[in-house]
Amino acid sequence: MPQRTPLFDAHLAANGKIVDFAGWEMPINYGSQIKEHETVRTDAGMFDVSHMTAVDVSGERATEFFQKLIGNDVAKLGFEGKALYSGMYNKTGGVIDDLIVYRTGKGYRVVVNAGTTDKDLAWMRPLAALFHVELTPRRDLAMIAIQGPNAIAKTKAAKPDAAALIDGLQVFQGLSHGEWFFARTGYTGEDGLEVSMPAAEAIPFWNKLVAAGVAPAGLGARDTLRLEAGMNLYGNEMDDAVSPLAAGMGWTISWEPANRAFVGRAVLEKEKAERTAGAALLKQVGLVYEGKGVLRGHMKVVTPAGDGEITSGTFSPTLQVSIAMARVPLAVKVGDAVQVDVRGTLQPARVVKMPFVRNGKKVFE
Question: What is the rounded distance in angstroms from the CA atom of residue 262 to the CA atom of residue 241?
Answer without folding.
Answer: 18
